[in-house]
Amino acid sequence: MATFIMVGTYSRDAIDEISSQRTENTRKTIAQHGGKMLSAYVTLGETDLYLICEFPDMQSAMKSSIALAKSTEISFSTNECLTAEEFDKLMG
Question: Domain count of the chain?
Fold first, then answer.
């Protein structure tokens, strides 16, 4: 499984719907697309939300990102990533 960082920005409507149930629904949506949410972080500033997830491939991550945007009104930028250790090994 590949690791992805999903960077989210709340819309005004998304702010109104903040709840622990939405977090659980997010986990379920990611799982429905073959992924697993490893962790989630909420921040202050330009970016509101970081989800660290694993997906089997880019297509699964993309489907999940779009499904979440539709159901939560949170816009996501989804990026595949490597750990520093994986990157160092790749670069030799």
Answer: 1
